[in-house]
Amino acid sequence: MCGTNGENSTDNCVHCWRNGSSVRTIDLVVVGVEREPEPVSVVFRRICEDGERVPMKMESLTTPEWFDAEKFKKGQRYFYNNYFAMMVTKLCGLVLVLAVPSVLKVLIMTGRSSTPARAFRRYVDTISNMIDWYCGDLNKRDSDIYKVLSTVRGKHCAAAKKSVAGGSTFISQKDLALTQYGFVGLAITRKEFFGIKGSPEELEGFLHFWRTIGYFMGIEDRFNLCEGSLNHVTELCENIGEHVFKPLVQKPSSDFLQMSDALLTGVRPMIPMNDNDAFMEFVRRLLNLPAERLSRAYSRFSLGLLIFLHTTLLGLWWLAWLMRPVLNGLLRFSIHSNITLPLLAILTLGKEVLQREPTIGAETQRSHQRSNMAMAH
Hints:
This protein is mainly alpha-helical.
């Protein structure tokens, strides 16, 4: 292993590719495909440098040859066993993704997250799609998962075309990989802190699940965060958190602060006790940024409650065996209620929460109906 100042750390791999020195190679077996191991630094550089110049794949996709249905199901089970903690990691991840300038630019242009009501609608739609993924069976050709994957890809492609037409850049492989981090990164690198539990086989299945979803979202295998062993993926995600997201959150842009505030206000009907300042401080601490004292007593209480829920109620086995099903059930009920009949959202955010996204253009719809048929066959 390489060393910087005589120490081994997740920083070293990035330090090495920047300075041209040798790097360690991790022994790994790629999920579903045998291949030579690659240094984490090489993959990190490929995503952050090469990925910025490569657009998302927009052609029709078929089920990849490396897909393993049994691992996919284990990944789904891993999610549902840790439903509460997983959803919190994904909300933290979505906040982080808003800090990526290129992603934020597209979201501002589309206007999908500019107000709390629109952010609520976007987050509810994202959760609804994700639940369909976690329930779907790719072995069944008539499963809703194919339809949902095609619809989401269609929206991404439409946003990419609108971005280019508006004089902005395309949605790149780097954008997609960093967005993938928002769904999986913290669940891997901070799983002990969040109280996420499962067998090694289920965790491997979780990686395979998100490798598959990433593929269908247009991520090439060489940019897919979840390609590799658990050690490889964990170190890669640690590097991305440390060298991509940490600097962005440490010196946030005004647009990021505005959009993240809209998002956290928008999800409050699902998590009524959530406090925006507390949650942002929670995210900062996940990135090992210096703690900041919160000015309001309720914010300090909310932060303390978040930490207590994960480190104590879900962290201590003798409490977790009882509290994990309770917390999972409460959040599932809250999310289901807000998807089917969002009364609290209407009362607090207005009737705008009922407005669905505009459908994608007819030509794009036809294109992705063909994509859906191709995936099904």
